Amino acid sequence: MQHEELKNFLVDKADDMKAENITALHVTGISSVTDYMVICTGTSKRHVSSIANHVASEAKKLGMSPLGIEGESEGEWVVLDMGTSMLHVMQEEQRSLYQLEKLWS
């Protein structure tokens, strides 16, 4: 799957789980870690974890294993690392506090 396709896949699968305020940032040249960051909001700890788990599960069905998943047990901010794209699923409080869009744009 190409970089742009993977980013679109993450956006689509997060949307399947009713993630809110989905934003995709192109960070090639800004970040040495990834090309795209997809940021979205979940309404509760359970919702945040469910979004990340759903996206990881759907990726595995297509033969793509996440390189890592962090923050699942806390459910406040879960990061799903897919290599060229990363998904950040955050509760509103963490998203407002860390302002990733401002940091990376």
UniProtKB/TrEMBL annotation:
SUPFAM superfamilies: Nucleotidyltransferase. It comes from the Bacteria. GO terms for cellular component: cytoplasm. Gene3D superfamilies: Beta Polymerase, domain 2. Coiled coil: none annotated. GO terms for molecular function: ribosomal large subunit binding. GO terms for biological process: cytosolic ribosome assembly; negative regulation of ribosome biogenesis; negative regulation of translation. It is found in: Cytoplasm. Pfam families: RsfS. InterPro entries: Iojap/RsfS/C7orf30, NT_sf. Keywords: Cytoplasm, Repressor, Translation regulation. Interacts with ribosomal protein uL14 (rplN). Functions as a ribosomal silencing factor. Interacts with ribosomal protein uL14 (rplN), blocking formation of intersubunit bridge B8. Prevents association of the 30S and 50S ribosomal subunits and the formation of functional ribosomes, thus repressing translation. Belongs to the Iojap/RsfS family. This is Ribosomal silencing factor RsfS. The lineage of its organism: Bacteria, Pseudomonadati, Pseudomonadota, Gammaproteobacteria, Vibrionales.
